[in-house]
Amino acid sequence: MARRKETQKQQERAAAAGIKAKPHVTKQQTDDERERVVADAARLLARAELRGSIPPLITPFKNDEVDYDAYAALVNFQIDEGSHGILVNGTTAEPSTLTTEERNRLVTLAIEVTAGRVPVVAATGSQSLAESHVLTEHAVAAGADSLLIVTPYYIKPPQRGLVAYYLELAKGHDLPWMIYHIPGRTAVGVTLDTLKACKDKSPTFVGIKHAVNDLGFVSECLHEFGADFRVFVGLEELSFPMMAVGACGLMNAVGNLRPGVLAQMCEAVEAGDLDTGRALHDQLLEINKAVFFDTNPIPMKYMMKKLGLLATNEHRLPMVPATADLAAKLDGVLERAKLGAAHAAVSRPTARDGGSAANAGAVSRPTVAPRRKTAAR
């Protein structure tokens, strides 16, 4: 009783001084708000249908400029081939050679061209929190379905720094977001405790892209967070093994070359047809290895050009095209895989009013088709 009277006196003194008292928030109100955020995140996650094959698209260049028309055509190619989503500005896109404006325009373009037919996952991480904020805010405003945020590279922050970094980027929006775990490129990994801390404090944290040769970590994540936790495979050679222990899909560079086979493998595994999934994985084995004959996406871009999926095979420094020796080696891979230039023809999109896709807002919107369920085939 005495404590209540003292509180009332404090409120009266504050009112007399013109200070507006903060409303009292009960634990029940806090719990209710968290449940609302969790429910909203679950609805967004269901809308995004984050599972299956979501290839990280390459960035086509022409005379050292981003070829937005070619990029739009590649997005349509992925959808036509049955991919379950599009990943924009992943490692395969050479994002560190792109400006922030170019990365943002690619996100807008992908959203325009997909027109709701498949989810668009925007990779918005960098080594700089300020730059990651700019990329994330743009992706949210543009209408991306989910975010993939790489661990800050080069800096080698402590785990508590990673948690603070990710929670900062998760503020101000309700999009599902995932951590891109690729310590071979970033020089920093994430621990299970770090994932727990992110999960406890951000209901919209929904999964990881795991580009590490560590099947055990996949099992640990799914055991800790449940089967709804999204684990996407980021290493081609472990595609089937990781999915067999519970990963929900693939974000593999080889999806630029053989998107249909990857989509079929994901659908087979989800349907419980492990024999078919294993056979498709075996069919891709040599091409999966070829992706890493040199730094990704050097082999991938060469093979795409060879198959007619790209008009040019250009990179930005310090990335460079395949050497003659590497080209001969990759030609052998394609020949043994019975792939030739007739494998796929990518038609360029028609822009509104005869314009160009170089301005992302000018890309013609394809007819909107309902999103497929992963095992619909």
Please explain how this structure is put together.
The chain has 377 residues and is an alpha/beta fold. The chain has a domain at 39-271: TIM Barrel (Alpha-Beta Barrel), CATH 3.20.20. The chain contains 15 helices and ten strands. The strands form two sheets. The protein has an eight-stranded parallel sheet. Helix 3 (68-81) crosses helix 4 (100-114). The chain is globular, with a radius of gyration of 23 Å.
Layout of secondary structure:
Blueprint (H helix, E strand, L loop, with lengths): L1 H15 L10 H22 L3 E2 L7 E2 L2 E2 L1 H14 L4 E3 L11 H15 L5 E4 L5 H14 L3 E5 L8 H11 L7 E5 L1 H4 L5 H10 L3 E6 L4 H11 L4 E4 L5 H6 L4 E2 L8 H12 L3 H10 L1 H6 L7 H9 L17 H13 L41
Parallel strand pairs: 1-10, 4-5, 5-6, 6-7, 7-8, 8-9, 9-10
Antiparallel strand pairs: 2-3
Supply database-style keywords.
377 residues, alpha/beta, TIM Barrel, two-stranded antiparallel ribbon, 15 helices, globular, disordered C terminus
Shape: globular
| Helical segment count | 15
Number of strands: 10
**Helicity level, as a percent range?**
40-55%
- The assigned CATH architecture of the domain at 39-271 is Alpha-Beta Barrel
How confident is the prediction overall: mean pLDDT? Answer: 85
CATH superfamily of the domain at 39-271: Aldolase class I
Query: Radius of gyration over alpha carbons?
Result: 23 Å
Outline the biggest β-sheet.
8 strands, parallel
From the N-terminal CA to the C-terminal CA, the straight-line distance is 68 Å
Category from helices, strands and their pairing: alpha/beta
Percentage beta strand: 5-15%
The low-confidence parts are 1-7, 13-23, 347-356, 358-377
Level-1 CATH class name of the domain at 39-271: Alpha Beta
> What are the secondary-structure elements, in order, as H or E?
HHEEEHEHEHEHEHHEHEHEHHHHH
